[in-house]
Amino acid sequence: QVELVESGGGLAQPGESLTLSCATSQHTFNIITMGWFRQAPGKEREITAQITWLNGKSNHRSYGDSVKGRFTITGDYAKNTISLQMDALKPEDTAVYYCYIDTNAGRDWGQGTQVTVTS
């Protein structure tokens, strides 16, 4: 099991930016994908962004439709870290954001971090 440590998030006004970070507590090999899902109150968990590595190199980044063009995911495979730059935030981005990691052993989740966008 991989333990993930999340940071960032908090409170923002519409149009502002926030950054989320996620890292493994111990160095992990064979990472396939890292990313975030988010879950708003009363809604299902939805994919936000993910980065997939092939042979330790960034291979593909993908985003949920609702965040395309506003959010940017970056990652450092060697450091086992990812970051999510969230720009032009909207009230509908309010949710708990959960970092996850896929390895050969399966998927593990972070504890979640709250992002609240309100004026």
Keyphrases for this structure?
11 strands; seven-stranded mixed β-sheet; mainly beta; 119 residues; four-stranded antiparallel β-sheet
Write a compact overview of the structure shown.
Helices cover 0% and strands 59% of the residues.
| Unreliably modeled segments | none
Q: Which structural category fits the helices and strands?
A: mainly beta
Oligomer kind: single chain
Mean pLDDT: 95
What does the radius of gyration come to? 14 Å
Total helical segments: 0
Largest sheet composition: 7 strands, mixed
**What is the helical fraction, as a range of percent?**
under 10%
Task: Please report the distance between the alpha carbons of the first and last residues.
Answer: 39 Å
Q: Report the portion of residues in β strands.
A: over 45%
Number of strands: 11
